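Agenda item 2: 4'-deoxy-4'-aminopyridoxal-5'-phosphate complex prediction
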Amino acid sequence: PVPFNQAARRADFPLLSREVNGKPLVYFDNANTAQKPQRVIGTVDDFYRRHNANVSRSVHTLGEEATAAYEGTRDKLAQFINAPSREEVVFTSGTTNAINLVAYSYAQPRLKPGDTILVTQMEHHANIVPWQLVCERTGAKLKVAPITPEGELIVERFVELLTPDVKLAAVVHVSNVIGTVNPVAELARACKSRGIPLLVDGSQAAPHLAIDVQALGCDFYAITGHKMFGPTGTGALWAKREHLEAMPPFFGGGEMIRAVSFERTVFADPPHKFEAGTPNIAGFVGLGAAIDYIGEVGIDNIRKYESELLAYATDALRSVAGLRLFGQAREKAAVLSFLIDGVHAHDLATLLDQEGVAVRSGHHCAHPLMQFYGVPATARASLAFYNTRDEVDRFVAALEKVRRLLM
Ligand code: PMP
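Presented output:
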């Protein structure tokens, strides 16, 4: 195992040392987007200073350097999620784009009236709305697997719902609202034995736990670079080669073809047939640095440290009078959604900001989950490995101050 020096790692993130409203920043909005280590910032800077050129088009030195760095990230990403092949990694601008690609290229041509897509009650809108859009176009319907009040998927119900009308199941790996870690391998086995492909929204899993798409046994896995300490506008879809080969391209343009005439276009092989146009080159080079960085910190160190911090923060929050915590799954990432009796989530977040504490408030792009809990919004503290117990203490002290102010 890689040794873990938390304080040294925290110091890798320049933004964390700033002040907000005259107080040292406590950044607890990591599920929204994560901060970037100097390694990533420096890599993007260096790319623009020394290597900037378009990819895959130029034989000149800069073009080759840019292409090597950009394509190098594909190798790193394939390794990071243990994909069997780099060709199965399609670069996208994020999870939203990755799921839409599957919805339009894979699902839409296969759906007809009477078919269904199975999702869960805890999905992000990115894993609901694309399916609704293709359902509207094809006459298919969405089915929803229920959860318990603790925020755990009811696996038996999910399995019962895998009837022959289900043409695809789509499940979040780690909930962005309540932190639940879903038993993806178990769900994948149930899907596979019925011939149903499974898509996993891994946005919130990639920064916090080891991902092995082969061990998980899913068909599609979507990730977002900016939540794993990389630049915004980067992400990927991993899909089994057979699926990528069977899928028509979603966008057309340059970079995704082998030959074009006005009569006919021969598309490039996957993944390039899904990557039309000039991509976010510097962003993907930065994402490569982020993956290297996570490897250096050690994803197992991250998981262990964050579990301990989660336990500490959960206990600390439970000591706040009138506080309701949403989601108590047994397998959980360090995400804490909460409300204080009689206080609106936005007021909580606004007043916490006065104390230098950044938390998100709102529906977290998960309206159906808010409806399940019967609240319009929650406040959410989402932690990363660079956060500390001291920050949790300052957060809870700020919360007590806010509570006294509003009561
Ligand atoms: N799914 C989940 C669970 C998420 O948390 C997010 C980001 N909040 C997304 C999907 C969408 O990711 P992006 O906006 O980066 O495409």
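Discussion summary: The two ends are 48 Å apart (CA to CA).
Owner for follow-up: CH.
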